[in-house]
Please model this.
Amino acid sequence: MSTVEATPQAGFAARLLQAGAHQKLLAFMSLIILLIGFSLASPNFMQTSNIIAILQATSVNGVLAIAATLVIITGGIDLSVGTLMTFCAVIAGVVLTYWGLPLPLGILAAIGAGALCGLTSGTFVAKMKIPPFIATLGMMLMLKGLSLVISGTRPIYFNDTPGFTEISRGSLIGEVIPALPIPNGVLILFLVAIAASYILGRTVLGRYTFALGSNEESVRLSGVNTDAWKMAVYALAGGICGIAGLLIASRLNSAQPALGLGYELEAIAAVVIGGTSLAGGRGTILGTLIGALIMAVLANGLRILSVAQEWQTVVTGAIIILAVYADMMRKRRMG
Amino acid sequence: MFTRRAMLGAISAVALVASGMAASAQDKMYIPLISKGFQHQFWQAVKAGADKAAAELDVEVTFEGPDNETMVDRQIDMLAAALAKKPAALGFAALDSQAAIPLLKQADEAGIPVIAFDSGVDSDIPKATASTDNLAAAALAADKMAELIGGAGQVAVVAHDQTSRTGIDRRDGFVNQVKEKYPDIEIVTIQYGGGDHLQSTEITKSILQANPDLKGIFGTNEGSAIGVVNGVREMDRSNVVIIGYDSGAQQKEAIREGLMAGAITQNPVGIGYETVKAAVAAAKGEEVPASIDTGFYYYDKTNIDDPEIAAVLYD
Model:
């Protein structure tokens, strides 16, 4: 086993490699093996339409997982990502359908509402010193309730906003290259991933995100306003959940107010499979993206193979355990 | 190095086992059923009916549904995976009709006949809909209620929800029948407990508290009916006539004990059976009736063990 010894002076790429390369490789290899295995098992798996279906199934969970990754790297956890997504979808529904405002305003409102809720969670955690698990658990329930209240417990349809379904279902790529009708939702997932990667790797906010997770106390003692940075990370994650809300609402052509519980756990599972440490200070967006893809490929592939649903759940659980165990073994060797 | 190899090995083992399972039935006609749920006993009974038809007609059937009835997007993913398998026909119980339209169109274009089951789809794509006539079934509940309370007095409804087709139809079927046929019966309130046992219990207790002369309550699904039974028991108002809907171990026990007067049961086994039968016929290009009434029954202490009733009840 060759380990990459990166010195503190080494560049961004080397640090990235040191932080997540092995886990990412492991996750990536697992993804490839799953793809090959399912392709061999069924001729219906490796079809353009099915690959697009898998990517589309990844888009919402992937975006949520990216939001969760940011918070988890700070050493926190965000249980509210699923219901926040729903809340933002409902806000978009209110702005577009109930108030009849133009599409860009609906998009801004959803993302803005997400960021604001994220900021609120961040305030609970940073200023009021409520443990992240509790703060975001409370937020999760409040948002679930508020979604039902605001929507009047009814789904809000977007039939009056014709362009809305294009956010997720349309295909800009398909218009340029007709053979490759990748839905916009997938494109948005990758754009969000690239943006989040850039923020984590190249900006001050990214540096402090890792620093908060590694050793918050020493960062604070060196004169950094850790509270403000932490709130910024939660707000950013919230804004990303707003994007997920737009994606799911656009895909369903409706804001479904009762949806959302349980999505946080799937997002966290994708993060963990992708090698981000729940203890904080370590993680990558690429890993999370691969983690989300593994979950979607597994779900789709097992369905294609007609594996009974109860066993699908068992296999998914086992894969999570295997992925985290492999990661721990690797760390033990390196440590 | 060891762990990585172990991990890869484990994953490939899973893939191999899975491929072995899949290889068995390639030549039979394949019909996936995408349901609204999976783990509830009602859906398992639908599955049992589908499996029965599959065995008789020698086709391969799979049955899937999301963990709960809010997960509209998961159901869409399941539908997408089912279509990727190029099935001969498809059974679909839509959680939200509108959300599924693009995929249903895709199925239509690929020449895959779609049979709707349990509740209809707001579209002309499905060749047939196999479901319970909930309006008629709830009207029967109203008739039984009138009979049991002597045709006069106050009653209440604890419904499971106000948005889904089944919720609306069962409520309206009951309410309209009372209004039309029983002028001396007053429906004092209609409340919604989401089909949740505990919530329906609390609702029932407050209804009983507010209406000391209440003579009967209709619970519109399994969870609502159990909640009504619990509420009546906790308030010690055993003179209140309870009529439930669907079955389940608790509801059956309540009927045997006499706490619940009786209940309407759909025929979930029949829903699954008729769906697969219609799907096979449609796949062969035969004509299928647009609406397939899968039937319903009223059962109480006296007929709960009759073979005809026992066959459609589930625990």
